[in-house]
Specification:
Strand content: 15-25%
Radius of gyration: 21 Å
Largest sheet: 6 strands, mixed
Number of strands: 6
């Protein structure tokens, strides 16, 4: 079970790392474009272009900051223990899918099984957190039954 958690964790780390790299590359490209933009006789065009590049840089800095927060969250996950109560770092098996409570990273596949990587603060994460096998709940007109937590 801990091997599965480690694999899911590593897939989440990879997801966050790719997000960080993409944001960093976009920041560098926007800064390079801004620096390469030479002042033309139409000063307003130059200023508009520089402002657009600055906005792009700021947007990507925000994405980089969010990815850093996700990385910090992942760094606090422990693989030890076999808690029967769902918490951050838990794998939760339900009748409507398998979930890994960590960060929102979409669908992760391990050994041909799909797991939804969800934030503990997402709607489904909030429903799962603190629960154990046998708990039932409804979300978005779907009924869920927790079969197993580890």
């Amino acid at each position: 079970m801990n091997e599965l958690k480690k694999e899911l964790y590593n897939l989440c780390i990879s997801y966050v790392q790719k997000s960080m790299e993409a944001a960093q590359q976009a920041i560098e490209e926007a800064q390079k474009a801004s620096n390469d933009d030479t002042k033309s006789s139409a000063g307003d065009k130059y200023e508009t272009s520089r402002e657009m590049m600055q906005q792009e840089t700021n947007r990507n800095l925000d994405q980089l900051n969010e990815a850093n927060k996700l990385k910090v969250t992942l760094n606090h996950i422990s693989f030890s223990g076999t808690a029967e109560i769902a918490e951050t770092g838990s794998v939760v098996i339900t009748n409507n899918g398998n979930f890994y409570i960590a960060v929102s990273a979409g669908i992760l596949t391990v050994n041909n099984e799909n797991y939804f990587a969800v934030s503990p603060f997402s709607p489904i994460g909030l429903k799962l957190k603190g629960q154990k096998a046998g708990f039932e709940f409804k979300l978005n007109d779907k009924n869920y039954l927790i079969k197993k937590v580890f």
